[in-house]
Amino acid sequence: MKAIADVSIIPLGVGLSLSKYVAACEKVFTEHGFEPKLHANGTNIEGDWERVMEALKACHERLHEMGVPRIATNLRLGTRVDREPSMDAKLRSVKEKLEQ
Amino acid sequence: MKAIADVSIIPLGVGLSLSKYVAACEKVFTEHGFEPKLHANGTNIEGDWERVMEALKACHERLHEMGVPRIATNLRLGTRVDREPSMDAKLRSVKEKLEQ
Amino acid sequence: MKAIADVSIIPLGVGLSLSKYVAACEKVFTEHGFEPKLHANGTNIEGDWERVMEALKACHERLHEMGVPRIATNLRLGTRVDREPSMDAKLRSVKEKLEQ
Amino acid sequence: MKAIADVSIIPLGVGLSLSKYVAACEKVFTEHGFEPKLHANGTNIEGDWERVMEALKACHERLHEMGVPRIATNLRLGTRVDREPSMDAKLRSVKEKLEQ
Hints:
The structure is a homotetramer of 100-residue chains.
Chain A: E1 2-12, H1 19-31, E2 37-39, E3 42-48, H2 49-65, E4 70-80, H3 87-99
Antiparallel strand pairs in A: 1-3, 1-4, 2-3
Helix pairs in contact in A: 1-2
């Protein structure tokens, strides 16, 4: 089962500058074979459900290792069985409608 | 690593009446050994990260088996390493503050 | 237009103990005439869209006044026009399915 | 008070093809003077809290006018008072860390 995920990880207890933790997660996703698409409020990845969840867990573990005591993540998670889901297809479809 | 999760599962392509799908997920969580706490906009469970994620995956699979072609889930996910996280402790702590 | 909202407010830059801020928001919601339903990962309120949004803004303002420099809120927001939405009806409907 | 918002609007009761509704919201945001940044799982906008919320309400109203009976939105909402928040600054800061 393929999943499309939008991951917003908020580290707590480490002050206000969160970018190094977001960057650390990006690297974890890349190490796990994903091509993360960073946006202003999260990161999009797509792939097999289990691999997505392993990578997300590895993010939490990495951040805790970096000294983050508490993490609040918001995850948007999509699956579908009528056809293969794809982030590119989702974006393309909206853009086509915008051009009409 | 223990996780506290707030799961909001939205089945797409099956009309407007979603309660039977929410109920199906509640049953999946119970079958997986959780005590789900249903609220008006989701369900809270807590437990080992892997078990939480297995149960969530089983929800998606169950709903797809029931004929739901597409699912959009919103997940709030908390982990902490400074002390054992607990939904009861979170609620109790806010309620104490409200009584002051 | 009536809205059902699930509000999860995460104060940043004030350490790990967030319950007093959650409690402060509960009070703001009550002051604004809502009956907030606290759960382990957020608070549910329902009412006129504008009133819900005024109250949410007042929460952010109150927390910033209390010294919170940065806030990350996750909001689940439902509207419907086929019939009057209701948190009680949502919960009742799932519970009926669970009893079948 | 400036807000940064990540809006994920899910129309219910209109089948599986949601892109025309996402495109309609993009147009609403543009009409309201925003420069929406579409990504695979939502749209980012930034601006004055009240204007952001007016535009979001206008999206829900537009979609209901288009025949969508029910809408479930997930909103990530950030405010901060220590300095002016900016989507560009957030992205730039993470990218700098990734290059180090």
